[in-house]
Every structure is written in structure tokens, then in C-alpha cells.
Amino acid sequence: MKKEKTPMPEQQPQERIKNFNEVALGYNEEQAIEEAERCLQCKVPKCTEGCPVEIDIKSFIKLITRKDFSSALEKIREKNSLPAICGRVCPQEDQCEKKCILGIRNEPVAIGRLERFVADWNDKNKNDPGSSKKSDDSLENAFAELERIHDGNGNKNLNINVQKLQKKARIAVVGSGPAGLTCAGELAKMGYGITIFEALHESGGVLVYGIPEFRLPKSILKKEVEFVKNLGVEIITNALVGNTYTLEDLFGAGYKAIFIATGAGLPYFMGIPGENLNGVYSANEFLTRNNLMKAYLFPEYDTPIKKVKNFAVVGAGNVAMDSARTAKRLGAEKVYLIYRRTEKEMPARIEEIEHAKQEGIIFHILSNPVEIIGEDSFVEKVRCIRMELGEPDSSGRRSPVPVPGSEFEIEAQAIIMAIGQGPNPLLLKKIPGLGLTRKGNIIADEKTCRTNIKGIFAAGDIVSGAATVILAMGGGKKAAISINDYINSGIW
Fold first, then answer.
1. Integer distance in angstroms from the first to the last C-alpha of the chain?
2. pLDDT score, position 128
3. What is the rounded distance in angstroms from the CA atom of residue 276 to the CA atom of residue 256?
4. According to the model, what pLDDT value does residue 253 have?
5. Could you give the dihedral angle defined by the CA atoms of residues 117, 22, 98 and 448, in that order, rounded to the nearest 10 degrees?
6. Rounded to the nearest 10 degrees, what angle do helices 57-65 and 29-36 cross at?
7. Residue 368's beta-bridge partner residues?
């Protein structure tokens, strides 16, 4: 048996920094079967324990060894409606692969790569098991129902009956990111009529505005969203719940429960001098301009991102790596990544860190910005101070401590702050009495996803704070089960 994983074919670094094409090229059939045959087929597999959506990993891998790729996809989709996405962006090394028994002495089975292969194979062979499941009970678009909430004079008419559109009951999902899509898909499979309300003009949430094309192609995301729609889910874009519609509007229109999955879209800043200079971006703004507003397709789309010689990115999570690698592809000669701890403490995926290094990103570890310096209101450089690690903080990581007199400067004409994000308050402040944490996240029961308001559920980053795609999906799945229990209880 091979000790190491089957290598993933990739674009070479010197080529990929010139384009936004996907870096990892995926397994072919021979490579996938070779990797699948490494699986020990444990009687009591531990890998599933590490999967937030509980995919039957052992079974789908066995089907790959039999070359029954279509059945392998069906097996995955029993638990996960977004396999092509999860196979690309989930941190399997910290989840399912971390539990793999083979990984005790050798490298674990490349579960994520196999999941991606199955989804990609299916796409190439046009054999989607969900394509025939489109609901026929959606007699008219739910948007038309909600449009009639408002008469021509702007007054509300809440005497709307949407029961005719449903099998069981109709549920509203706010947000079309991974938590929202998962919850909607699971409830649709149970026979509910689902409408997703998305504030932006495209579906996908962080999957569409936050993750670059070279990690998750938009074409892949659109196909995964289409699969969810084919389950009978309505998606209404440009609908900012809290403004376009209130929660009272939705309940009044006949929705029996509302699931809030609006994610974490409010960027954090450091509060240091110079942070208001031209050329300072939040990672959210920078990546949204590039991904959703298609700056990566310049000159076809003339989305403004300042063209500069040197970029500096503050942070070391996946968002920071995405920002740094995007800046490199937009033509920056040098991209610096500034992080106050060591590489060992970086929260980004190991794969993303390695790719960033290969692409020439310059790491300044044990460094922290103290001031952004500009001229004529534009960024010119960032002043940093050296750090050293002291005692562990509340997260268990050693706290960085400034080294007196160690300041130094980095020349950069644009700075990207990628130090985390919190809940967007636009909707939350429109829900009187909703329980919130000190940081503004929704308080929801960990097992049931129920909030303190009857009929309102929440999960994903809006509850947990910024986390991973698969953890958000796990929350969406738990919420779907809980909503089903709530509806069946008859207490609504």
C-alpha cells in the first residue's frame, strides 16, 4: 500500500500567478481509483466522525474503487448537496482526514480530493442525480407573492396565502451562503417549500464574493447552486431582508419559520493611525471587488482596484492568503504578508500557505503594524514592530508581545486588512428583542439552532463568528432538522 497520497496535479507557480485559473487541476479516473484503494475500509470508520455533515466516506470511496462514480456522488449527496465546493475549500486535514486511521503511520486518504473528483466527473459526464428532482409544486414564483405585500402606494397588504405553493409548510431562508444553501436543500428534500432571500445580485454568499476563482471557479459554484434550485428551492436575489422585506412581512406572507444565515460580513480594523488613507482595503472589500465585481476579468470588467507595485496584507488566515495571492495575480511586483505570530500559528490551511510561498508571497512573521504612513492622503508604507511570543492567550496560542525599539518600515502602496470579520448589523438591529452576544452574533442553541424568538432559527458564521464553509454547512443541516421538528410539533 502506498504510504503517501496520490499527488494532486497543479498549475506551475510561474504560470498560475499570471492567471486566475484553478490552481489544483483535480484527479483523473486512474489517480482517483489509485487513491481510493488506499482506504482501509475500517469496520468502524473514524473519518465520518470528523465530517460536520456526516458523509458516509467509507461507502463513497468504495464505490470509486468499483468505478461507480455516479453512485459515489449519490452517496455523498445523501448528506452534502455541495460536494464540488467542499472538495475544494474544506479543511479536510483538520476534519475527516485528521481522523483517518491510515494517517497514524502514513498519510491519510485524500478524502477531499476524492470528493472533488466525484463531483467533477459527474459534471463532465452530465449525469446529475439531482437534475430530475425539480419541484413541480412551485406554481408561481414566491417573489410575486411578496411583491403583492406592497400595493402601488407603498402600503402593505399582508393577506397573502402561500399555502398553495407548499407540500408541508413554507420556510424562509435569509442568506444564500453555505449555511443557507445547506438548510434550504435539506428542507426541500423533506418536502418543504423553501425561499432563499439573498441581499446581493448573485447567490453563494462568501462562496461567491470571498473565495477567488483560482480556488473555487464561479462556474462550479453556479452548478452547485443550480442543484439546490433543482430540489425545488426558490432563490430571490437583490432582497435585503430587514429593508426590502421585514421578518413580519415574511411571517405575514405565510412562512412558518425563518432561518437566518447572513454570515460574517462586517470587516474588522486595527484602529491604528493612517488606516483611513486611500489604498487601505478591508479584505471583504478587496475580494468582493475582485470576485463578485469581476476585477479578475479586467479589462472586460473595469472594476476599480488600485494598480500598485507593492501590496501588504495583514493577517494569516485563509482570507489573508486569498487576498495576497489575488494581489499577486493583479500585477503586484511584491506582496508582503504581515503576521504577529509564527508560521506554526497561522490559521490558514497548510495547502494555502504552501501555495502562497510558491507564488512568491513574502512572509513577515512575528511582525505587527503600528502605523500606516501616507503622502497626499495615499498610502506609501506601513510601519511595523517586531514581536515575540509570550504566554498562551485564551485561545491557547502564545500571545505576541512587542519588542521595544524594533520598529521597521515596509514600502507598500496598498494595504489589505484581513484580521477577521463580524456579523453585519443591518438585519439584526431590525429584530427587536433578538438575543445577541457581546460581539453582535446571534445567540442560538448549539443543538437546535433556535433563537430566543419563536420561529426564528440561526446558524453559520452569524452565530459562531467567522469559521469554515463546512462548519457553516453543518450548522445549516442541524437547523433543517430542528425546523422540521418545530413544524411537526404544531406549536407554530
1. 56
2. 54
3. 44
4. 95
5. -90
6. 130
7. 385
Give the contacts of 76 (CB within 8 A, at least 6 positions apart).
Answer: 55, 60, 83, 115, 118, 119
Cell numbers standing for residue 105: 503511520
Q: Residue 341: what residue type?
A: R
Under 8 Å between Cβ of 118 and 69: yes
Query: Tell me: the pLDDT tens digits for 398-450?
Result: 899 999 999 999 999 999 999 999 998 889 999 999 999 999 999 999 999 99
| Regions of the chain where pLDDT drops below 50 | 129-166
Q: What are phi and psi of 186, to 5 degrees?
A: -65, -45
**Residue 321: CB partners within 8 Å, gap ≥ 6?**
337, 348, 349, 352, 353, 355, 356, 361
Each as own residue / partner, the long-range contacts of residues 120-127 (CB below 8 Å, 24 or more positions apart, any chain) are 120/26, 120/84, 121/29, 121/32, 121/69, 121/73, 122/69, 122/70, 122/73, 123/84, 123/220, 123/223, 125/69, 125/70, 127/70
Domains and CATH numbers, the chain: 13-125 (1.10.1060.10), 142-265+422-489 (3.50.50.60), 269-419 (3.50.50.60)
Q: In whole angstroms, how large is the CA radius of gyration of the chain? A: 23
Q: Give the Cα separation of 151 and 480 in Å (integer).
A: 33
Q: Which residue has the cell 488566515?
A: 317
Enter the C-alpha cell of residue 136: 413541480
Hey, CA dihedral for 223, 289, 458, 445, is it positive or negative? positive
